[in-house]
Amino acid sequence: DNYDVTVKTNSDGEVSYRYFDVNSDTPLAAKPTTPGKYVVSVSVSETALYYGTGDSAEYTIIKRTPSAEIYVPDSNIGESYSPVLTTDSDGKGDAVIEYKPIGTDDKFYSTTKPSVIGAYTVRATIPETARYNAVVTTSEFSIKKKIPAIVLGMDSPYVGTTFAPSVTTNSDGAAKVVIE
Asked: Model pTM?
């Protein structure tokens, strides 16, 4: 995006620049910033001590290879989660996020977020843009069983009386609790 043309001269003349597409003699309106081949033409004006001079050079602007990272935090079954994509590519908004079980063939990637217990690979495919190459990044995450909370309640019974402890839990197996 931001680059400078360096001119070394012992002249005190004014330096001016013109930019051209390598296949054209028509000057560009501004310094190019998109990938392609260009020519920069530099002129140094005449002064009382120096003749005017000029030179030109061909150069290429190449697409950047972006940095990219996808992250999905491990979660428990039934909890919502969202992938976090970090990249310097301007194609981030068009990225495709896909998921598959770890160890399965890539043909099993799907844009549907997994919701069952298991270990998964998440893949972000960031498309090529005018300034950046396409890039693919992956990471792994898991959806686990929940750890139940359990509270056992019991009064202090008197000798010769029966007691009935109570159990409170957030587990879906609460009806199956056995107290021995």
From this structure: 0.68
Q: How far apart are CA 70 and CA 85, in angstroms?
A: 5
Instruction: Give the CA-trace dihedral at 17, 18, 22, 25, to 10 degrees.
Output: -150
Which residues fall within 8 angstroms of residue 159, CB to CB, at 6 or more apart? none
Q: Please state, in angstroms and rounded to a whole number, the distance separating the CA atoms of residues 10 and 47.
A: 12
**In Å, how far are 29, 75, 164, 177, 180 from 170, measured between CA atoms?**
68, 17, 20, 12, 20
Q: pLDDT for 120-167, tens place per residue?
A: 999 999 999 988 999 999 999 999 998 777 777 777 777 777 777 777
- The sheet carrying 15-21 orders its strands as 15-21, 36-44, 53-61
- CA pair distance 107, 96, nearest whole angstrom: 15
Token look-up 């879906």 returns 172
Token pair in block for residue 55: 């030179």
Distance (Å, rounded) from C-alpha 25 to C-alpha 155?
95
Pairing of strands 53-61, 15-21: unpaired
d(CA 65, CA 69): 13
∠ CA 104-108-85, nearest 5°, is: 95
